[in-house]
Structures are given as structure tokens and as C-alpha cells.
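Obj: model holo form, ligand = beta-D-glucopyranose.
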Amino acid sequence: MNTCVRDTALALAVVSTAVTLTACGSGAGDTPGSGSTRTIGLLLPDSTTPRWEEQDRPLLEQKIRQLCADCRIEHADAKGDVAIQQEQMDSTIAHGVDAIVLAAVDARAMAAAVGRAAAAHIPVIAYDRLAEGPIAGYVSFDAEEVGRLQGKALLTALGAQAHGGRIVMMNGDPGDPNALSFKQGALSELRGKVTIAKEYDTPQWSAETADQNMAAAISTLGAGSIDGVYAANDELAAGSIAALKADKVSPLPPVTGQDAELAAVRRIVGGDQYMTVYKPFGPEAAAGGAMAVAAARGRPLDEVATGRVRTRGGAEVPAVLLTPVSVTLATVKNTLVKDGVYTIGQICAPPLARDCHRVGLT
Ligand code: BGC
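Output (holo C-alpha cells):
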């Protein structure tokens, strides 16, 4: 049975217990004081989406160091290129690392490399994206719930137009299994209510491609006839909004997003974007780091996991699935500011001072 854990509080409680269990030198796989150095490969997909290098990387490194002061980390960024990531996996395997954290550029294309790691007895933790092949564990957010939050928010924003309104769907990269789950979650809310007038996949989650696709949608459908835009993340929202503005669409239709990027939060305050999805990267990285350290020490990953998920190959693996949070103008303060993700000063930096005052943030 696929038992996905959807409770952040529980997930966090179990993760922090695991932190005690796997504190450096205390695991059964280690001899205290032996000074055996472990190496963890950290393979991230790109820097096109800011989260990977700006949030996930430092947070994962911090967690790994906290749990294992003498662990070495081998980081590589695949620049959105499947072949580069396959080479990075192979060289990480050749270096004889003790565990690999992998956020796959393309989940299916990485399956063979994950198999080579497993054959070399190197456990692979699929990070955020469910890589195919014999992974040892998985850490992510509930991706269908992300889509449901986006779909629900779009219906709320459409109000009276929610029935029969015409929307454009900007989906993510088809090689990323999350993109399909986001879309399925969104469609579970939108289907039968709005009309999907145009729909695009966006290879490599590129904002430029979303910009071009939105420009094409506007010229086919007509500027005034787009009632809402489902953008799967904040980068696609940025591209879509740029095209709508370039075509002088006014007022802008509601646009969704994901990742709570600072630029997106500022667009929400300025009235250009309707919502984003806040996925606290700290807890995700804490779970990923704890799993990586446990794996590198040969500890059972169930000590860190809060549930199990079924991989495409049918295996059940230990997993941590965290809960995403919808953020609109009304909730920026109670979520992102309250959690210390951004200060009011960052959100309201010029030229947004007046908007912040108007919406009651300052
Ligand atoms: C992640 C999102 C991210 C997107 C593009 C997805 O797999 O879950 O947070 O915006 O990839 O990098």
C-alpha cells in the first residue's frame, strides 16, 4: 500500500528524532572516535530555478555538516542537461561516495545511473523529484496537493468566472514527475469548471519558453479572452506575466505560482501575481540531509522516514512527504514573514513601498 505521510508536524517530529539517532559517531555503522570520513554526493538539476542553488544546496550542506561534522560533500549542478547529470552520477560513483542525494533533471533518464549506483552499493536518495531506478529513499512535498492548492486558488480568484472561464495552463517539464502531479492535482479542482483554452509543457521549466508560449496563446485567443493562468511555478508565472504585460493585457488575469520566490512574493504585493505555493525548504533539506547521513552510515532509512512511497518500478521505499502551503496577499504576513523566510524590508524594498502600505504590510 502506498502510505504517503501528509502531516508536516509528524514528519518534522520524526526527522528531529532521527537527528538524535544519527548524530555524528553515534550510529551503529560508525565506531565512535574512529574518524571515518564519509562522502555524500549532492547532485542538483540547474540554477534556472533559484531554489536549488540558493536554498536547497546551503540548507542540505548545513544539515549534513550538523549531523556529521567530518562528512565531505561533493556537489554538482547539471545545468538542466540530462547527459551532464548522467556523467556527474558516474563520476560520483567512480569516486566511491557513500551516498548520493539526487534531484533528477529527468527522472526516467536517470534510472540506469541510479541502477549503477545501487550495483556499487551506493544508496541514492531521490530529492524532491522521484527519480526512477532502485532508489533507497525519497524526500519531497505532496505534489498533487501543490496542484490542488493552485487550482483552488485560481477558482477563488476567478470568482463568478470560475464557471466557464477560459484559462491557459503552463505546465512544467514533462521529464519531471512532479510536473505531472502538479497538473493532475490542479485538474482535479479545475476540470468541469473552467475551460482549458490552451495548454503547454515547459521543457527545463524555462521562464523564456513560458513567455513565448503565453505570447502565442494571446495571439491565438485574443488578449481580452484569458480569464486566468495556471502557471506551475514562479518562473513560469514570471514568463507568463511578462508576455501579458508586453501585450498590454489590462487588468492582468490571476496567475498562480509555486516556490515562494522573493520576486514572486513582490509580484503578489504589486498585484501582478495572484498566489504562490510555499514549500518550506528547510524541513525538506533537513529530511534529505538526515536521510543522506543515515544512508552514508549504512543505517536503515526508516529511522528517518515518516512513511513509504511506491516507486514506478513497484518497490516501496522509506519517504518523507511534507505539506505545502498556499500563499496569497492576505496570508503573506502569517506565513512567509512569520516563518522568517523574508523580512517586510525585503518584500517591500523599492519600488513597492506604496503598495505595501496600501495592502497593510507596513
Ligand atoms: C520542484 C519545484 C520547482 C520545479 C522547477 C519541481 O520539481 O518541486 O519546486 O519549481 O521543479 O525547478
